[in-house]
Design goal:
Layout: E1 5-15, E2 19-26, E3 30-36, E4 55-61, E5 68-77, H1 80-84, H2 86-102, H3 110-129, H4 135-155, E6 174-178, E7 183-186, E8 195-196, H5 199-210, H6 213-216, H7 227-246
Parallel strand pairs: 3-5
Antiparallel strand pairs: 1-2, 1-4, 2-3, 4-5, 6-7, 6-8
Helix pairs in contact: 2-3, 2-4, 3-4, 4-7, 5-7
Bound molecules: zinc ion.
Length: about 250
């Protein structure tokens, strides 16, 4: 059998009587769609293996249409704990959504694939460790998502510059963030258009950008940024940057 195509399932759509279209982020071929004929028939073994969040290896046959046809699917990681936790699903869905909109069809980005696999594996292991959804886990999940989103901006080439003022190079005092200029702004260069960036939000963004995802999920709760700060990173930096440079608005 030919070597399988490694992919993460981003979303699926019902098609026709019994077919399923799956949107994938593949390891070597970027984002692409495939069609699984008859996957929604009760006897089909394909449907259950083509669910969002699954990491799979696919056997495809070329078709004359737009979408290649799925011949077989092997599940590499089912992420069952992630998929059975409502909160983890929300976080995971936000990640898949941003990947869908920041990836380019048929344009390989292997770094993006590995980042997504790593994120989903960690979200799954976090969900498995803590079946009771405590407040602390909510924050840990939000930390993981925000860090993933910042790293995703990096792998598509629009990472926010957080180290020094993007207008004059001063290291401090930093006062604002400009999505248009793609970085932090000092108090001297700040204009009315720039969005205020407080010190805790700046510090959190730097930490999330620098730290390995695996380290963030094991870090002591008291060392994690507050929810308010995480929301500001999400809306003020991630969403603003994605909108300015990629024309999309993350959920
Ligand atoms: Zn400046």
């Amino acid at each position: 059998m030919a070597e399988g195509i490694e992919a993460v399932v981003l979303r699926t759509l019902r098609y026709g009587e019994a077919d399923l279209i799956a949107h994938l982020l593949t390891r070597h071929g970027g984002r692409r769609g495939v069609i699984a004929k008859g996957a929604r028939k009760p006897k089909s073994r394909l449907g259950a293996r083509l669910e969002p969040f699954l990491a799979v290896s696919l056997q495809l046959v070329e078709s004359r249409g737009d979408l290649d046809i799925v011949r077989g699917v092997e599940v590499l990681a089912a992420h069952d704990a992630l998929r059975s936790s409502w909160r983890s699903q929300q976080l995971g869905a936000a990640a898949l959504d941003l990947v869908t909109r920041l990836s380019v069809e048929h344009e390989p980005n292997e770094q993006m694939f590995h980042l997504l696999r790593n994120f989903l594996d960690l979200l799954d292991s976090t969900a498995a460790r803590t079946p009771v959804e405590a407040i602390e886990d909510e924050r840990r999940g939000a930390v993981l998502l925000a860090a993933f989103q910042l790293k995703l901006l990096h792998v598509v080439g629009i990472a926010p510059q957080l180290g020094a003022c993007v207008r004059c190079g001063a290291a401090s005092p930093l006062a604002a963030y400009s999505a248009r200029d793609g970085g932090v702004i000092c108090s001297g260069c700040r204009t009315a258009e720039d969005q205020t960036l407080d010190a805790p939000t700046h510090a959190a963004a730097v930490t999330l950008m620098r730290s390995p995802l695996a380290e963030l999920v094991t870090r002591a709760a008291e060392d994690l940024p507050e929810m308010r700060v995480l929301r500001t990173v999400g809306s003020g930096i991630v969403a603003a940057t994605a909108q300015e440079h990629a024309g999309i608005r993350p959920r």
